[in-house]
Amino acid sequence: MLLISQLSFAQNRALRLWYDKPAQMWEETLPLGNGRLGMTPDGGVVKEKIVLNDITLWSGSPQDANNYNAYKVLPQIRKLIMEGKNDEAQELVNKEFVCTGPGSGGAQYGKFQTLGELQLQFQYPGVGDKPQFENYSRELSLNNALATSSFRVNGVNYRREYFTSFGNDVDVIRITADKPGQLNCRISLSRPERFTTKTEGAELQMYGQLDNGTDGKGMQYLTKVKTQIKGGTQETQQDALLVKNATELIIYVSAGTDFKNPSYKEKVNKDLASALKKEYSLQKQQHITNFQKLFNRVSVNLGEGENEKLTTDKRLAAFYGNPEADKGLAVLFYQFGRYLSISSTRVGLLPPNLQGLWANQINTPWNGDYHLDVNIQMNQWPVEVSNLSELNLPLAELVRGMVKNGERTAKAYYNADGWIAHVITNVWGFTEPGESASWGASNAGSGWLCNNLWDHYAFTNDKEYLKSIYPILKGSAQFYNSALVKDPKSGWLVTAPSVSPENSFYLPNGKSASISMGPTIDNQIVRELFGNVILASKTLGRDEDFRNLLESKITQLPPVGQVSKDGRIMEWLEDYKETEPQHRHISHLYGLYPATLITPNSTPGLIEPSKKTLEVRGDDGPSWTIAYKLLFWARLQDGNRAFKLLKEILKPTLRTDINYGAGGGVYPNMLSAGPPFQIDGNFGAAAGIAEMLIQSHDGYIEFIPSIPDLWKASGEVKGLKARGNFTVDFSWKDGRVITYSVTSPNAKKVKVKVNGQVKEIVSKKI
Ligand code: FUC
Questions:
Q1: Would you say 412 and 68 are in contact if contact means Cβ atoms under 8 Å apart?
Q2: What is the DSSP letter of 353?
Q3: Would you call 242 helix, strand, or coil by DSSP?
Q4: SS3 call for 567
Q5: What does the longest C-alpha to C-alpha distance in the chain come to?
Q6: Which amino acid residue places its CA nearest to atom 3 of ligand 1?
Q7: What is the pTM of this model?
Q8: What residues line ligand 1, using a CB cutoff of 6 Å?
Q9: What is the pLDDT of residues 583-595, one digit of tens each?
Q10: How far is CA 311 from the centre of its chain?
Q11: Residue 665, phi-psi category: left (phi > 0), alpha (psi -120 to 50), beta (remainder)
Q12: pLDDT by residue (tens digit) across 375-385?
């Protein structure tokens, strides 16, 4: 066995998505983003449409949708549940125990919306309205966070480069012709609603105000466009810029909103002015350098295959039936996930929403919000292991901002201490139950978020961070501690009323219901949270009394998993028959992932029931559910089955209708499809691929715990992270690890599992 500190292997081959034609639909366009701004150019030859985004652009406003009388019906709801009258309890929840008003359907709840469109209309000298073009290529380089399109019209080669700059916080598009004076372009801006465009001097502007759901005067935004040209002239029309006979055209788009920033107009001006002052080559270089500081921390090599030379849409079409011919596609998809994380969030701002930061509509599906019963948590799953730890911090800040509202909600509904969030939240801090009991009554949201917050500590061991999140975790534990009730049958302490996310079951009387007490996911979340708060309070030397209380409460919780008559993990406290056995949510395996409650070492009796649970659920569904199943099988260390799920999620689709059942996959641009586009599938799959390569949740770091036969021949990984702040490199041949190195800021003892053997080593100081 070779223990080496520095692996030397070929750097990743160029990681790129590429196509030989312009995008025909938005789901073929290439996503660019710098954590705040986003753009998706379609590469059109005559007309190019570039959808613009700003992650902060939300309609709606802060609201108080708590029903302050709800707690009065709580005893009655609980009594009905305990009497087995869940259907009646559900009626009462729907009447008295949901949010006031229309909830997620209301204008005040708001929506993440598109910022608008930048439209480029080209004219080519010497040809008609529909010019022939050749040598067309369109590409997104993941290594450089740069998109390009190039083609030839009438003997002239045209090239466009696009990036959302990590330098000056603006969008940049550079268009060139290889013969002088061949560029003619009309530049305009628009939005489906609530916008004004005008030109002022040489500047094009679009501005407006969204609906706040009360007096209509919601969030304000401003977009400004300015150009630099070589050769030719620029004219200003009323609402467009007209570039004629130029050889080079650089377009800068600066944009912002007044979200937590009253002086946003100054920022828009400043960003634009400093971008204009900078040489294009320097702007591009700074962008690439800043991006690569994060992106280049990890490289993965799983081998090659002849299909790698195909365009990305063709690679996707070929993969399911012939994965041997494209071993690199899994690496591309994994690194695309990392690329999307870096592009859709930044420290100090917002976490990625249901669509990351890309939306091309006003009515974004599910409001483009933050769903708390798996989706938004899944978005964060790849970041720690993939060495992008700081990208977990925006979520922690979003959660910090929910606590005050969540305390009001805890009092209003449960007359409880601490704070709770249910199933949905927005940038305005919504914590109330959703408007319908069947999905809106889940108690799991806040506790599940605490899992993400804890994860950052588990991977970094950063005590200052732990101090800063401790009040959030403690507040969440206080809620469950004071809201748990004793199930008279078993004597266990459980949540009530709650639901197992979005699923329902048959009662003995033949009716169905969702409302229950102590759904398995809640029990697992409470157990995990109490354990983490106990550990945090010990680590920080605080709150001994509260710790003692939690230590006694934890012994009164239901077990991690109960096994049903037919050998599955039970989804509810009772062995109910579910109305939809293949339901997309698999919440009762929360303990297997993301929690670490179900492992071969700690709960050997729950491994087979977990597998059986997954068998019955099946391998299909919206893409996020396929990604989740991939993660479960990776944790269950069945590499071939995990790989099968990877193939499922990489199935190409063009569907955009709203889907709750089978049929997830990826669009030609590799963004994941529920359908519609929902980014959690990308992030979940990236986490899943990492989980196949490394695991560190069961007391040791394990290399290639769950790789499929296809990857066994050889492979190399550099820069993945393990819990305890370790950075790990390793390589393997014929399914056996041949080299590995574990580094950390200070040398310390750590257990590793190599080729089936657990041993203790000392990590190398970086
Ligand atoms: C959850 C899922 C749906 C969808 C929505 C955004 O509620 O059940 O499939 O992903 O979030």
A1: yes
A2: B
A3: strand
A4: coil
A5: 85
A6: 660
A7: 0.97
A8: 354, 366, 371, 373, 375, 502, 584-585, 622, 624, 660, 674, 678
A9: 999 999 999 999 9
A10: 26
A11: left
A12: 999 999 999 99
